[in-house]
Structures are given as C-alpha cells and as structure tokens.
UniProtKB/TrEMBL annotation:
<feature type="binding site">
    <location>
        <position position="256"/>
    </location>
    <ligand>
        <name>Mg(2+)</name>
    </ligand>
</feature>
<dbReference type="InterPro" id="IPR010978">
    <property type="entry name" value="tRNA-bd_arm"/>
</dbReference>
<keyword id="KW-0067">ATP-binding</keyword>
<dbReference type="InterPro" id="IPR004188">
    <property type="entry name" value="Phe-tRNA_ligase_II_N"/>
</dbReference>
<dbReference type="InterPro" id="IPR045864">
    <property type="entry name" value="aa-tRNA-synth_II/BPL/LPL"/>
</dbReference>
<keyword id="KW-0460">Magnesium</keyword>
<keyword id="KW-0030">Aminoacyl-tRNA synthetase</keyword>
<dbReference type="Pfam" id="PF02912">
    <property type="entry name" value="Phe_tRNA-synt_N"/>
</dbReference>
<keyword id="KW-0436">Ligase</keyword>
<dbReference type="GO" id="GO:0140096">
    <property type="term" value="F:catalytic activity, acting on a protein"/>
</dbReference>
<keyword id="KW-0648">Protein biosynthesis</keyword>
<dbReference type="GO" id="GO:0005737">
    <property type="term" value="C:cytoplasm"/>
</dbReference>
<dbReference type="GO" id="GO:0006432">
    <property type="term" value="P:phenylalanyl-tRNA aminoacylation"/>
</dbReference>
<dbReference type="InterPro" id="IPR002319">
    <property type="entry name" value="Phenylalanyl-tRNA_Synthase"/>
</dbReference>
<protein>
    <recommendedName>
        <fullName>Phenylalanine--tRNA ligase alpha subunit</fullName>
        <ecNumber>6.1.1.20</ecNumber>
    </recommendedName>
</protein>
<dbReference type="InterPro" id="IPR006195">
    <property type="entry name" value="aa-tRNA-synth_II"/>
</dbReference>
<dbReference type="GO" id="GO:0005524">
    <property type="term" value="F:ATP binding"/>
</dbReference>
Length: 344
C-alpha cells in the first residue's frame, strides 16, 4: 500500500508539473483527489490492512493529499499568471498615444441670458425670488388687479388645472407673494426668473412654454425716472454701453402708468432695417409704475410708498443678443446649434 501511494504521488507530481492549462490541471485534480479519484480508491482498500499498518498508511495518505494539494495550488497560480501575462501582452496600451478628446457640454443660451441678467440685477441691489410654476388663480390674476371678470384676462389664454389652479402665465405672482411676506415693510427689490405657460401656437416667435424675468421695486419716493435708469443700466450691460432705450405708453392691468420699452435695433444700430421694420427700434419688455390697488392688496399704503415693475421674455433677449431667428432652436436640443455657445 505504501509503495502504491508513493508511486501515485510521484506520477501525480510529474503530471501536475507538466499541465499545460487550467483545464488540464482541473482534470488531474479530479483524477487524483476527486470522489472517485485514485487516492480515494486507495483509502477504500485500507480495510484489508492489519491494525498496525492502518495508522501508518493513514498518515501517509494525509501527507500525500497535502503534498498534491500544494502542488495543484502552485501550478494553478503559475498557469493563471501565465494567462494574465499573455492577456496583458496582447492588450498592451501605448501610453505615448495622444488621448481621445472628450466632448464637453456648454451652457444653454437661455441659461446664459438668465445668469447674466441675474448678475446685472444683483449688482444693482436686487434679490432673486423663485416660486411655484403651478399657481393659484388668486396670485396669478386677482392680486395683480385682474379680478374674475376682468377683460384683460383674455390677453393671456391660460392652462387651467382646476377653476382655481393653473400653470402660471407670468412670474408676477412672486411679486405679490413677496410683498405679502414683507408685511408692508420696505424696501422690496426683487427679480423673478422662471418658466411660464400660455396657450399659444408654436412658431418662429411664439411658444406655449417660455421663460420670463420680472422685476419689482417698492419703497418711498420711487418714480418713473428710477424705472428708466434701472432699465437703461440693464440694457447697456446686456447689449452694449452705447445702447439707448425709449418708453412708449401702453397698458397693463397691474401698472399705471404703463410703458413698452424699446432698444435701438441691434442689427442696424438705429438706422433702420428689415429687422426693426425701418424704425430703428425693437421692443424688448413691458414695465410701469405699480398700480395703487396692487400695493393696497399686498398690504402697502399707496399714499406712502410707490414702486415700479417690469417683465421681459428671456427668449426675446437671447434672440436679439445672439442674432437667432427662430425661438424653436432653444427647445429642439440640436447639438449643432448648442455648440455655438460653448465657452471654449
């Protein structure tokens, strides 16, 4: 029995050392150490041994098993390392090759305009106020001097969810909310950027969803000259130091008096062209002095304080600033269009 064990061990060690791959090594493991392997078969024959031989043979069997298991482990590690080395050699990386350029994104032109406008107005002492896009009719219309039966509501065809809840048609509700929160305290000096929604047919100059920036100032002694000075400073920082503005009488329910604000045509500089219809001016926003009734409903005494408000469409500012002809470019996610605004 001992001779058979030694002979099997020697044969197994030689075959393990010559195993060419992991599969062949696994086959040898099953042949010698498996449930039906040669070592197991020898163990089954121990019953025929004398009582004196069994301990000696049993110890030898354990030594052989340990020796073979160690040999299998060493050979497996060597074969696995050989496989890894071959793989590394076949997949060698040339570190001298130049890297592949990774395309980077860029800030969307609308976000650029919003960010620039925020920087300008923050520099003028304004705070930024943001609010819900799903708004109450009370804040969207009634607090802005637009009661239920007011004909001016027809100017803004709205997306109603219920009779009292709608998608906001402008960011002006934040003006009312802010004044109420202030509880009659001054000064109030905010801008309200955000998305707004109106029933409209999408075309080159209109969209059912667009972006507005509205502003509000309330304090003692606020006049139309303060409004004009604020807007002139904004326009010159946005479009250039030589820009000019003009105010034309208009009507908005929440301001009195109300004005439309024009800038000199960005294409012709005011000399007249197709873009400005030969007038030299292009409308960019609406503004006016806050209506006394709006101040009263928000808890302010119109005899003691006054204010001005303005509202502009971010898309219109971007169209003029970057010379874009179709508002739909802002929403189609065409990479060719967006690449033009890469910071690099």
């Amino acid at each position: 029995m001992q001779d058979r064990l030694n002979t099997m061990k020697q044969a197994a060690l030689e075959q393990i050392a010559q195993a060419a791959d992991l599969q062949q090594l696994q086959d040898l493991r099953v042949k010698y150490l498996g449930k039906k392997g040669e070592l197991t078969e020898l163990l089954r024959g121990m019953g025929s041994l004398s009582a004196e031989e069994r301990p000696v043979v049993g110890q030898l069997v354990n030594e052989v098993r340990q020796t073979l298991e160690a040999a299998f482990a060493d050979r497996q590690a060597a074969l696995e390392q050989a496989v890894l080395n071959a793989k590394l050699a076949s997949q060698k990386i040339d570190v001298t090759l130049p890297g592949r350029p990774m395309p980077t994104g860029s800030m969307h032109p609308l976000n650029r305009v919003i960010e620039q406008a925020e920087d300008i107005f923050i520099g003028l002492g304004f705070d930024i106020a943001e609010g819900p896009e799903v708004e109450l009719d009370y804040f969207n219309f009634e607090m802005l001097n637009l009661p239920k039966d007011h004909p001016a509501r027809d100017m803004q065809d709205s997306f109603y969810i219920t009779e009292e809840i709608l998608l906001r048609t402008h960011t002006s509700p934040m003006q009312a909310r802010t004044m109420l929160k202030k509880e009659g305290k001054t000064p109030v000096k905010i801008i309200c950027p955000g998305k707004v929604y109106r029933r409209d047919d999408d075309d080159a100059t209109h969209s059912h969803q667009f972006t507005q920036i509205e502003g509000l100032v309330v304090d003692k002694g606020i006049s139309m000259s303060d409004l004009k000075g604020t807007l002139l400073s904004f326009v010159r920082q946005m479009f250039g130091e030589n820009q000019q503005i003009r105010l034309r009488p208009s009507f908005f329910p929440f301001t009195e008096p109300s004005v439309e604000v024009d800038i000199q045509c960005v294409m012709c500089g005011g000399s007249g062209c197709r873009m400005c219809k030969e007038t030299g001016w292009i409308e960019i926003l609406g503004a006016g002095m806050v209506h006394p009734r709006v101040l009263s409903m928000a808890g302010y005494n119109p005899e003691e304080v006054s204010g001005f408000a303005f509202g502009m469409g971010v898309e219109r500012i971007a169209l003029l600033k970057y010379g874009i002809e179709d508002i739909r470019h802002f929403y189609t996610n065409d990479v060719r269009f967006l690449r033009q605004f890469n910071r690099a």
